[in-house]
Amino acid sequence: MNFHKAPVNNVSEVTINVSDLQKSLDFYQEVIGFKVISQIGNEAELSADGKTTLLRLVRPSNPMNQHRTSGLYHFAILLPKRSDLAAFLRHLSTKDIRLGASDHAVSEALYLDDPDGNGIEIYRDRAPEEWSWNDGQVHMVTEPLNVQEVLKTETGEPFNGLPEDTVMGHLHLHVANIEEAVHFYTKGLGLDMILRFGPQAAFLGFDNYHHHIAVNVWNGVGAPKPDKNSTGLNYYVMKYHTAEAVEKTVENLRELGYEVEETSEGYFSEDPSGNRVLISE
Predict the structure, then answer these.
(1) What fold is seen in the domain 10-280?
(2) What is the enclosing helix (H) or strand (E) of 209?
(3) What is the DSSP letter of 160?
(4) Domain named VOC: which ranges (predicted)?
(5) E strand or H helix at 149, and its extent?
(6) How far, in whole angstroms, is CA 165 from its chain's centroid?
(7) Does residue 168 contact residue 96 with C-beta atoms inside 8 Å?
(8) What is the rounded average pLDDT for all residues in the chain?
(9) Which of 5, 151, 162, 182 could share a disulfide with 33, CB 3.0–4.6 Å?
């Protein structure tokens, strides 16, 4: 089952604000392994395969770095295989980077921040047949990653950038109110509740994926929206795979009272905490 291409809807691309475009480009190429597709003015598009944009960097006119707001917790880059995670881990060991590592039962993940503190997860999924479900909710945990077991899968090939089959795996967001966020993502965008961590966090996905979107209130209930010039999330793309699905989603959002703006790229809306989404086919 491929949860990141048609017919499954998915987060296909994320745009973040950065304070120093060149510094960020150096980091995302040298540390993360992206390729630059284009750089025009204060924007750059990054890719794993040289063609498909996964991450867009934007330097706002007056960048600032705000804390304890809604917005980006992390975006997550999904690698095709466990051996790719091993190669990435070995690559990171040559850099002076602060790193977190977790086993989530459904996946194995590494965590780090870019120069502006934007959160990044690099992970690989276990096969869906290995996931456990209890009363319709997927079993997820946060336990230490068995780094030695991961490294045993190394092929001996040096890290040479992100594999071409790398995709944007999911997006995890700070929100001001869990119930309001869940309402927007389930009733508006059409995701299913996959796992609920009480009043603190919710994991939502299409077609029983462990999560395409996660939301939390770890920056505080009622966390304010960031300034549009703040580093962090600018917007993300939620890709639907038919024009009918896009139209139905837009109709749902408008009926629920959410604002939707039609543009040449698609339809922009935002969740109640100000996280902007581009609804696109």
Answers:
(1) 2,3-Dihydroxybiphenyl 1,2-Dioxygenase; domain 1 (3.10.180)
(2) none
(3) -
(4) 10-125, 167-281
(5) helix 147-151
(6) 16
(7) no
(8) 97
(9) 162
Cα–Cα distance measured from residue 66 to residue 223, given in angstroms and rounded to the nearest whole number:
12
- Specify the residue for token string 């950038």: 161
88 backbone dihedrals φ, ψ, rounded to 5°:
-65, -40
Q: How far is Cα 93 from Cα 175, in angstroms, rounded to an integer? A: 33
Tokens representing 194 are: 């996959």
Q: pTM higher than 0.85, yes or no? A: yes
Query: Where do the DSSP E strands lie in the chain?
Result: 10-17, 35-40, 43-47, 53-58, 71-78, 100-103, 107-113, 119-125, 133-134, 137-138, 143-144, 167-174, 192-197, 201-205, 213-216, 232-239, 261-262, 267-270, 276-280
Looking at residue 25, its pLDDT comes to 98
pLDDT at 261: 98
| Sequence spans of domains, the chain | 10-280
Query: 35: which strand partners?
Result: 47
**What is the rounded CA–CA span in Å between residue 20 and residue 63?**
9
Q: For residue 54, how many other CB atoms are within 10 A of its CB?
A: 25
Average pLDDT over residues 19-33: 98
Residue 1 has pLDDT above 90, yes or no: no
Quickly count: other Cβ atoms within 10 Å of residue 189's Cβ: 22
Exposure string over 110-145, b if 16+ CB within 10 A, otherwise e: bbbebebebbbbbbbbeeeeebeeeeeebebeeeeb
Residue with tokens 């009363």: 135
